[in-house]
Amino acid sequence: QMDELTELRELKQPLEYTSCGSVFKRPVGHFTGKLIQDAGLQGLKWGGAQISEKHAGFIVNIDHATATDYVELIAHIQEVIKEKFDVELQT
């Protein structure tokens, strides 16, 4: 069973990059990754950070991302999701 869980994790999570993990809390009644996908943000790059193409709930370091890259990308995601869906994403 552990092997199955590990395999499932490898399929669904962007383990090939370093990341800050799953960044946002799940808003009531929504899935964060789905909101980000539906907003057209999946794959968006900001400096060296990128919204994972494998799982939109993760922000990955693709090219020496700085803390500022992460903070600005997180703020941008929150702003877009609030504008498009009136949902506040919390970290």
TrEMBL record:
Signal peptide positions (record): none
Assigned keywords, A-Z: Oxidoreductase
Cited InterPro entries: MurB, MurB_C, MurB_C_sf
SUPFAM superfamilies found in the cross-reference section: Uridine diphospho-N-Acetylenolpyruvylglucosamine reductase, MurB, C-terminal domain
Domain UDP-N-acetylenolpyruvoylglucosamine reductase C-terminal: 1-91
UniProt GO MF annotations: flavin adenine dinucleotide binding; UDP-N-acetylmuramate dehydrogenase activity
Gene Ontology biological process terms from the UniProt entry: cell wall organization
Gene Ontology cellular-component annotations: cytosol
Cofactor(s), names only, from the UniProt record: FAD
Pfam families: MurB_C
Name by which UniProt lists this protein: UDP-N-acetylenolpyruvoylglucosamine reductase
Organism the protein comes from: Kluyvera cryocrescens (Kluyvera citrophila)
Taxonomic classification: Bacteria, Pseudomonadati, Pseudomonadota, Gammaproteobacteria, Enterobacterales
The gene coding this protein: murB
